[in-house]
Every structure is written in C-alpha cells, then in structure tokens.
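hiii so um. not sure if this is the right channel but i have a protein structure encoded as tokens and i wanna go backwards to a sequence. like what aa goes where. can anyone help
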C-alpha cells in the first residue's frame, strides 16, 4: 500500500481501495494481498522481483511479490485477498507470472469511476466494487478446489480475535500438524506463520483507524510492541504506521463479500 498525501481509502475485510499520490521515494516491499495499480495521471513505473523498472498504464501484481512502484501523478490501487473468490480468479490471470499489464481488461467506466471518487468519498466503495468486478469478469478460469479443512482454518483465523497456532488449528480441523502444514501451503501459497502475520497486519489497519496510538494498535493486533508493528508494516507497505495515520482520509466498511 503506497505512501500518499491526501489519500482516500476504503478498507474492507477482503479488499481495499487506496486513491492518491505515491511517495517520491519508492521502497521494495511485499504483502499477501493481490494488488492492481492504475495510473490516472502521468507515468506509472513498477519493478517486480528482478524484472527491472517498466512503465505501464496499469498493472496486476501477484500475492507476496516483492515490488516497488512510483508515479508522477494520481494513482488508484485496489487490493484483494487471494483467499477470496475474486482473489482466486485474479490469481488465475497471472498464471505463474509475478505481474501482468491489464489495461485491455479495464473498461473506460472504471477509470472514470476512480476520477469521480477522487472528488467524492461517498463513491469510493462503489468504485472498488466496479474495479474488482471489471477485472474479475475477464478471468475465465474456474475457482480452485481448496481442501475444506483449509477453508475452515481460514475462517477461524479471520473470525477469531486470537491467532491459533499450528497445533491448535490443525487439531480443530481434524488434521495432523504435518498434514495441515502441507495443505495450508498448497492452498494459500504461504506458510501458516506468514499468513498469521498477514492477519495481524490487517487487524493493525483496523486498529489504526480507531486509535492514533501505535502502541495500542500493536497490542490489539498481537504484535510484541510498536517497534515490531512498525517494522512489519514498513516491510509490507513500504511506509510506517505514522504515515498511514498522518495521510489518512478513509471510509471503512466492515462487511465481507465472497465474489
């Protein structure tokens, strides 16, 4: 998630939209969410993995890909959890590639909606719905066949305040720890440890929208302390929590959708 000034945001449980200007000093970072960035003004440049810097009008970046991004003007970014139905279809579009250009998949109304949302926060959530639907509709691959016990584990991780560890979680879904570890990595693409960190990071975003105290937000999201949260936050989003607090103008929606 980029560092902006006067950033508009809508954050939901499985997706988010950020609309604003990028920091002039891009940093390499990675996060579990799938990201789509759309330049509304000027040039957008991205560097994913070892690809080198390329200029693209819009780009879809896969989950957990190390990348950096910078632009000369206004940029819209939407993020989708890869475990959601929409995320699974977006992942299918990448077909093992770290990123792809998606300009041909974006209808003009999607760009228009971003421009309108920049001038009216009330339009942000509808804009996010339109962006995801517009891109997902171009993905023809069927939904992946996930093990139901992994699906159950994901529900536990997202719905409960605490983050159960490997032994407890595997017991609750009826698997041995080794078998659960294998299936979880196969179906999510990441280890349980890394996914639990992502869940805590998402919870820290929610906490930071309720309190300006980074220490309190860290405690609510189960980080060891404010320094721990700040380090992980920067590794994932390229900027620290204080920038999120300083630049934040957002609309939050707590509902969760399956697309």
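sure thing!! here u go:
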């Amino acid at each position: 998630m980029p560092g902006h000034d006067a950033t508009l945001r809508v954050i939901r449980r499985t997706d988010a939209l950020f609309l604003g200007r990028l920091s002039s000093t891009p940093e390499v970072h990675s996060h579990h969410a799938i990201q789509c960035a759309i330049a509304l003004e000027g040039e957008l440049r991205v560097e994913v993995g070892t690809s080198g810097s390329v200029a693209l009008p819009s780009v879809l970046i896969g989950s957990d890909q190390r990348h950096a991004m910078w632009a000369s003007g206004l940029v819209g970014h939407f993020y989708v959890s890869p475990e959601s139905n929409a995320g699974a279809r977006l992942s299918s579009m990448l077909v093992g590639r770290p990123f792809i250009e998606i300009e041909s998949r974006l209808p003009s109304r999607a760009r228009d909606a971003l421009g309108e949302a920049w001038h009216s926060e009330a339009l942000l959530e509808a804009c996010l719905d339109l962006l995801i639907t517009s891109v997902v509709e171009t993905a023809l691959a069927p939904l992946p066949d996930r093990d139901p016990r992994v699906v159950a584990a994901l529900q536990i991780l997202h719905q409960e305040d605490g983050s159960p560890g490997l032994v407890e979680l595997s017991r609750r879904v009826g698997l041995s720890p080794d078998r659960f570890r294998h299936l979880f990595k196969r179906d999510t693409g990441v280890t349980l440890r890394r996914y639990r960190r992502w869940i805590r990071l998402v919870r820290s975003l929610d906490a930071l929208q309720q309190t300006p105290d980074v220490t309190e937000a860290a405690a609510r999201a189960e980080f060891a302390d404010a320094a721990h949260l700040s380090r992980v936050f920067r590794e994932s989003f390229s900027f620290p929590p204080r920038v999120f607090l300083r630049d934040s103008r957002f609309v939050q929606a707590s509902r969760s959708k399956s697309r």
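oh and The chain has ten helices and ten strands.
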